[in-house]
Amino acid sequence: MANPLRPSSLLESVDQALSIKYNNLVYDLKSTGHDIITLSLGESFFDVPAPDFDGIEPDELHHYSHSRGLPELRRQLAKYYGNQFGLSVDPDHEILITAGSKVAIYLALLATVEPGDEVLVLEPFWLSYPTQVRLCGGVPVSVPHDVSVFGLGAYITGRTRAIIVNNPNNPSGHVYTAAELDHLHELADEHGLLLMVDEAYNEFVAPGTGFITCGAADPELRHTVTLNSMSKNYGISGWRVGYVIAHRTLIDQILKVNQHLITCAPTPLMRYLADHFDTLIEHTRPQIQQVVARRNEVADWLAERGIEVLPGESTFYLFASLGRSKLGSDAFADRLLRESGVCVVPGIAYGESCDHHIRVSVGTESPERIRRGLDAIARLIESTG
Ligand code: PMP
User: Fold this and answer.
1) Which CATH code of 3.40.50.1580, 3.40.640.10, 3.40.50.620, 1.10.3720.10 fits the domain covering 58-280?
2) Which EC numbers does the record give (predicted)?
């Protein structure tokens, strides 16, 4: 007799998110009294004012709302992209807010990918992209980290449907240049591809770095899908508010899936964000600048210990090489955690070509504890070389 608990074949091909596996290990170790230096969390802890929902009407406090997202928040987001980045967005038709950008990316893929379609994911990629492509029946095509944007043409076939780009990049901190973005637009035009650009860390750039939104060079949104989130820029990842900006024909498709899977993002949170949009970002911006500066300082501390990182200058992540160590990244991260109480994410989570790297996140620990963590990393590289 068939086992009623058998998983679907689709899900059998899906692994746990490796970063979350390590975070769960941290929770387990901490609960048994271990002190863990946590350089693995995908978050930066900010001082964010506690929300006050007192003035919110009962309708919006407890109930569903528009499944494109609360109109006032859509208008705020459209204004933000227009004023800050020169991308004019129609809040009625070209934007949809949903329960986090993780879901937004999945909905955009579900709305566009046919079974067997190929989607290019650029290593080091944010680890959910390939899995989400698979969950849509698509085929993720990994591009190794040493291939530049200008070498992507070699990976495009007649089945390629889209390229997913993370700008700024988690985990390297790379911010795409105008020339790189122009080349991506050329590829999209030449081959009829979508550019899915995840801009979740767009505020995490050092002054003068000049973040460019990919859609700015595609004002009619002919092929650019922009994904973004309130999680990182506002320091409120637990609120689950993310959004997608795209051509209205795509948004109409995404809307259908959103209605069937999510209904709407949390209504009272969207109301609060719409009412406090500017004051909240003004509150986090100086803190964002501090953590970006810390990140770049940690790059120097790593260099002092002879540890190289992939080029990048933004976010709160560094993608550090394991240098002489003979360990694979999962074994390295496992030993580092068990022997020294320091948690990082193994590079293999970000693609096959990244198995000789680890991701170091500096958003949640003090400088003194970060230095101790780096010392432990340097020691383990040395002793396993
Ligand atoms: N994109 C990137 C690059 C991320 O790092 C994350 C979260 N770690 C997300 C998207 C998802 O963010 P959220 O679902 O909280 O909006």
Assistant:
1) 3.40.640.10
2) 2.6.1.-
